[in-house]
Amino acid sequence: MSIVSQLILIPVCLIAGWILKRGRIFPENSGVALGSFVIYISLPALILANVPSMKLESSLIFLASMPWLIFGLSVAFFYGATKFFDWDSETRIALTLCCGLGNTSFLGLPVLRMFYGEEVTNAVLIIDQFGTFLCLAIPGFILALRFLSKNEQEKTGSPLRSILKKLFTFPPFLALLFSFFLRLFTIPESIHSVLKILGETLVPIALFTVGFQMELPFMGSSSKESKAIAQPLTVGLIYKLIFAPIVVFLIYLFLNLNPKHIKAAVLEAGMAPMITASIVSIQMGFKPTLSAALPGVGILCSIPTLVSLYFILENFF
């Protein structure tokens, strides 16, 4: 598939998902069902098909560290922005959770595989599972819990117990752990082929699911609500789509990493805000309108920024 065809597929799947939900052609819970298929079938199969034969390199540690770096910077960045723009704590936490973490699986994996082919899969899986997912499950969850009321904290139970439950009930993470055990064995070709076929379903279904769940602030919200979130929305997306990938590029270039890994890290750093983090932010009551708008608007804005980053990286290396 040519790069032009690949770039066409992204907006087609996103728009198709968005239209089919608004046209009520698919059931209302289709996004949840399709997302569950990706989480329980597509992504674990892709991990089991690729990671057991993955060549381990020291630079993989830096790939896994990238989301932690971006999240850590977001804590300081949005703390300063809150002081400068006089936002409340809820806005700061919503921005930190959503824009401190990127959509490295549902959007990042399909996009990078379209840009660079299957060989980039391992790098993306390391970034997503050991980076983004763990960062959301541990410091992200702790940060959100710190700002809940005492009654709400009691409902969530022990923080450590909640974190461990999230880790060891998440199918892709379990598949990742199991895949390292499988490195000790040779997987039969017939089983590997089945896993590969199931893994290939991730690209269209994940993109369609993102489009189906995409929320835009000017659709279903009052003009007053849209104006209220315009400033933090803009600042948050500038951090996530522009500032974050530039910082990662400069740091990883200085560290003299494998150019392929630099490309993967920079593009993943520039992905739209994380949908799962947005859901967590909404459920915990941190500016629900803003939290819902960040992934939706971010996805639309990330298309030109990601394409620009791709061509800049291709010309640089």
Strand content: under 5%
Q: Tell me the number of strands.
A: 0
Shape: globular
Order of helices and strands: HHHHHHHHHHHHHHH
Indicate the radius of gyration in whole angstroms.
19 Å
Coarse structural class:
mainly alpha
Mean pLDDT: 84
The parts where pLDDT drops under 50 for at least 5 residues are none
Distance between the termini: 22 Å
Profile the largest sheet. Answer: none
Q: Which percent bin holds the helix content?
A: over 70%
Count of helical segments?
Answer: 15
What would your notes on this structure say?
This protein is an all-alpha fold and 317 residues long. Helices cover 78% and strands 0% of the residues. The chain has helices at 3-22, 30-50, 59-85, 89-99, 108-116, 121-146, 150-156, 159-167, 171-182, 189-200, 202-213, 223-254, 259-269, 275-283, 288-316. Helix 2 (30-50) packs parallel to helix 9 (171-182), helix 2 runs antiparallel to helix 11 and helix 5 packs across helix 11 (202-213). The protein is globular, with a radius of gyration of 19 Å. The two termini are 22 Å apart. The model has no long low-confidence stretch (mean pLDDT 84). It is a multi-pass membrane protein. Its main location: membrane. Keywords: Cell membrane, Membrane, Transmembrane, Transmembrane helix, Transport. It is found in: Membrane.
Strand-helix topology:
Blueprint: H1 3-22, H2 30-50, H3 59-85, H4 89-99, H5 108-116, H6 121-146, H7 150-156, H8 159-167, H9 171-182, H10 189-200, H11 202-213, H12 223-254, H13 259-269, H14 275-283, H15 288-316
Give a quick set of tags describing it.
single chain; 317 residues; mainly alpha; transmembrane; Mem_transp_PIN-like; cell membrane
